[in-house]
Amino acid sequence: MTDAADLRRRTADLLAAHPPATTERLDFLRARFDAGLAWVHFPEGLGGLGAPRALQAVVDAELEAAGAPGNDPGRIGIGLGMAAPTLLRFGTEEQKKRFLRPLWTGEEVWCQLFSEPGAGSDLAALATRAVRDEKEGWVVDGQKVWTSSAHLARWAILIARTDPDVPKHRGMTYFVCDMTDPGVEVRPLRQITGEAEFNEVFLTGVRIPDAHRLGEVGEGWKVAQTTLMNERVAIGGIRIPREGGMIGVAATAWRERPELRTHDLHQRLLKLWVEAEVARLTGERLRQQLSKGQPGPEGSGMKLAFARLAQEISGWEVEFLAEDGLTYDDWTLRRPDGVDFTGRQAGYRYLRAKGNSIEGGTSEVLLNIVAERVLGLPPEPRTDKDVAWKDLPR
Amino acid sequence: MTTPMSAAPEPDLLYSADEEALRDAVRALLADRSDPATVLAGLESALPYDRELWRALATGIGTAGLLVPEKLGGAGASAREAAVVLEELGRSVAPAPYLTSAVIAVTALLGCDTDQTDVAGPLAALAEGRTLGVLALPLTTAPGGAGEPTVRADADGALTGRVTSVADAAAAELLLVWAQGPHGPALHAVEAPADGVRTEAVIPLDLTRPLAHLTLDGAPGRVLAAGDRARDAVERALLTGAGLLASEQLGIAEWCLAETVRHTTQRTQFGRPVGSFQALKHRMAALWLEVASARAAARNAADALAGGSPDAPLAVAVAQAYCAPVAVRAAEECIQLHGGIGMTWEHPAHLYLKRAKADQLALGAPGRHRAALAELAGLSAP
Ligand SMILES: Cc1cc2nc3c(=O)[nH]c(=O)nc-3n(C[C@H](O)[C@H](O)[C@H](O)COP(=O)(O)OP(=O)(O)OC[C@H]3O[C@@H](n4cnc5c(N)ncnc54)[C@H](O)[C@@H]3O)c2cc1C
């Protein structure tokens, strides 16, 4: 099996053949992918070497030390964290070969066409229809909403209803949707931060070839579970140093502005500092479990912890800053490339963090998941499980 | 200021196969000898703790010597293993003087000169579980908080003074006394019972950890260590105690959560299990997340102590500041979500609440540990 020494050697070979100083960024990223050093736990030929996931850190450290360019994961998070693992698990060989390389290098941005005006937490209620056409393909009509990065995306992962006559979880199919299709219309939605990071997306007679279906017809829900699960693992799997992220910004503010300190804010900062450090350790423990092949259920909880902390720390920071907390850096409607939590002012962090407990499953829904799937508590009685989708009240 | 902060060491936060085997042995013993009914019955008896159980745990399984090197008569393990024992003792609220004797007193002796037979002798006796020892300081003493001794030693080594709220003091055969002598503070060994040694049991909130006020009136003592060495030994003992207490708190919280899930899954009201009501599910799910986080914090402290890491004071302060309130909340939720049965003497939930609440004050309340962090993390007070 590939070990750390082997990876170091391969990384050195890559750097020798493509010196970062004299190689175009994209060429370097492509070469890195082809050398199997993009995500080492992926199979050979698809950017990986079938190595343990934990060893990626070895490669990353070597490349960082050599000043090699990165693939800017903040900009392509949906592709890396959600589309890629789903393609890997359910894609055909052709789909994997076609999509994964430009996805990883960032040449092609991905977005996620899941949520709809009538289907948020209850995603399985979605109404966007996909109907077979004569030419072995599909025609899609419907409306999606809150679609982050849709304005940048080349491709989308999409769930649509293919059979309205069966209960909702059974009648869905999962597709890869071409965002340049003439039937796709993307309209910006302005957020409480002033910018428009997400969009509404209208799908009118969008054609999708059957070759862009992921998984079986009617199995869309199963495929979507992989996407959603990976979203949460991705959050828990990120390694952060002590005082990494928002708590570091808050701690630095505290150290640099002694004139603003009060006893109350001190007590609350220390509490948040402890909680941030413990959340970091919990994520670290999860990572250690994953790398030893003992995936623990902690992953589903990490997003809950991070959302609450981000909100409380940023709220603390605005309050600490006193008069500066009354100001905001920029309300213009911007179309950002991604989320930058540390690059902007406290007010932005405070507002943007409100989305952390909504996006990717609300905190209430995640608590349901922990309660039922981790603790095994009984489900609430449901009225929608055995009713055909078309007969559901809405 | 951020540079030293980001250089956090890479701890091992998992359990090794040996640690799991040790856990199985301790858990099996406690399930057999110390189920809740037995613990409750024992509290009504005059005995401070179950000597048979202690012998089986300390000597039989050999847990008393985990922190002691083999050449000094111990098992040559580390704080990581002792932490696993404490998780199980927390999970069963067993009244056993493990934290006081096998962790705190043992660590204090390890900080003295173990080449001296005066130190090595009692250390081996504690490690084998033959003798019970305690560090004679109030249970509330936080790391860094030993302060000026309340006991005086005269030139002949006779000790006089009073120490309040010493855990497991009444049963102890060896008292490690922090006393002010003619040449400054020193750590003294006092054998008990002896003339001039009086313990006065107090009625404790936590019935599973007996407390006593200790009065010394010319009690015969031997100096174990003096000056900085003595100070460091006491400090290390308190730090180790506080860090490993987090594992006991984890065990308490785990039992409370598991028992609450079990009960609410079985108890039916309004035609459905009460555990299917979302108001309760969300509370239990939130608690689960805190317990999972407490485990990471407690393992981090145990690992830092085991490796003698310079990060240990910070890891311990984080673990205590986090785990103490989690144990209390778990025990409080356990009672609330049990309803009336949770308020009864018969149901063991109250034992966990009392232990969790007393543990919150033990070895420094969370606020003290946060105050320590202000220094350690460079977040000075206004
Ligand atoms: C910044 C941001 C980016 C996003 N990006 C994307 C994206 O790229 N692609 C995409 O498809 N979607 C995206 N979303 C959408 C997101 O997934 C949904 O907003 C989310 O799933 C909630 O759905 P909803 O907005 O319809 O709220 P609702 O489901 O209507 O929820 C309203 C309230 O009811 C609560 N609730 C609902 N059901 C339950 C229940 N069973 N038990 C208890 N409480 C319940 C919720 O927690 C919430 O508080 C994004 C959202 C945000 C905020």
Q: What is the CATH superfamily classification of the largest domain in chain B?
A: Butyryl-CoA Dehydrogenase, subunit A, domain 3
What percent of residues of chain A are in strands?
5-15%
Runs of chain B in which pLDDT lies below 50 for 5 or more consecutive residues are: 1-6
Figure out the total of helices of chain B: 12
Low-confidence stretches of chain A are: none
Would you give an account of this structure?
The complex is a heterodimer of chains A (394) and B (382). By secondary structure, chain A is α+β, with helices and mostly antiparallel strands. Chain A has three domains: 1-70; 110-218, Butyryl-CoA Dehydrogenase, subunit A, domain 2, CATH 2.40.110.10; 237-361, Up-down Bundle (Butyryl-CoA Dehydrogenase, subunit A, domain 3). In chain A, 41% of the residues lie in helices and 14% in strands. Chain A contains eleven helices and eight strands. A four-stranded mixed beta sheet of chain A has the order 1-4-5-8. Chain B has three domains: 17-131, Acyl-CoA dehydrogenase/oxidase, N-terminal domain (Butyryl-Coa Dehydrogenase, subunit A, domain 1, Orthogonal Bundle), CATH 1.10.540; 134-230, Butyryl-CoA Dehydrogenase, subunit A, domain 2 (Beta Barrel); 231-376, Butyryl-CoA Dehydrogenase, subunit A, domain 3. In chain B, helix 8 (227-266) packs antiparallel against helix 9 (278-306), helix 8 (227-266) packs antiparallel against helix 11 and helix 9 (278-306) runs antiparallel to helix 10. Chain B is an alpha+beta fold and 382 residues long. The two termini of chain B are 17 Å apart. Mean pLDDT of chain B is 95; it is low at 1-6. Chains A and B meet through helix 7, helix 8, helix 9 and helix 11 of A and helix 1, helix 8, strand 10, helix 9 and helix 10 of B. Chain B: Residues 235-375 form the Acyl-CoA dehydrogenase/oxidase C-terminal domain. Chain B: Its cofactor is FAD. Chain B: Belongs to the acyl-CoA dehydrogenase family.
